[in-house]
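Deliverable D4.2, example record:
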Amino acid sequence: MELFKIYLDCESNLQVTFNPWLVSLMVLGLIIWIVFSRRYLLRRFKSVEIDQIELGIGDQKITIKPNLVDMQIAYKLWIEISTRKIGLPLDFEHDVIVEVYNSWYDFFKITRELLKEIPISKLNKSKDTQKLVMIAIQVLNLGLRPHLTMWQAKFRKWYNAQLEVKINKNASPQEIQRKYKYYADLKSDMERVNTLLINYRNELERIFKDQE
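Output generated by the structure prediction step:
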């Protein structure tokens, strides 16, 4: 059986004709490939269960089955957390609180900008993308914002004033910050938020790394 034929027509143009059976088999094969590829893509992404209690944003678990857009979002947020002090355990013997606050504030702004970049069409089509965005916003509003609202402005005002005090001229930033009247309470709350942010970083990593 001739599968295809190549010849010159009466006007010396090169012509190629295919056996109808061959064309039918090719079309059938393409359809089968598309169907199975789609099923594979739908199956390949694992569900990720995120515990809201560990993130300090609720009392239940949310299940997300991330698509490629979700994994890209999670990866970008993870990079921002992992490359800043925000995603590492605090060390109050060496860390400067105002610098930690700067890092937290920058992350707040960057997260908002990354979320703005998500096409509204993608957001409307995927409930899992909506869940991921909701978690990111709640981490900011319920995780970071309460601490920053309660402590940051007051501590910065006190700390900047202390830098001008003569007795502190030769003191290190760490020595100065330990003199803060509410240092123990501030430190405890910072450690709590820091733990939540580290947990958030780990959850983001699971979203884009645990997929096969």
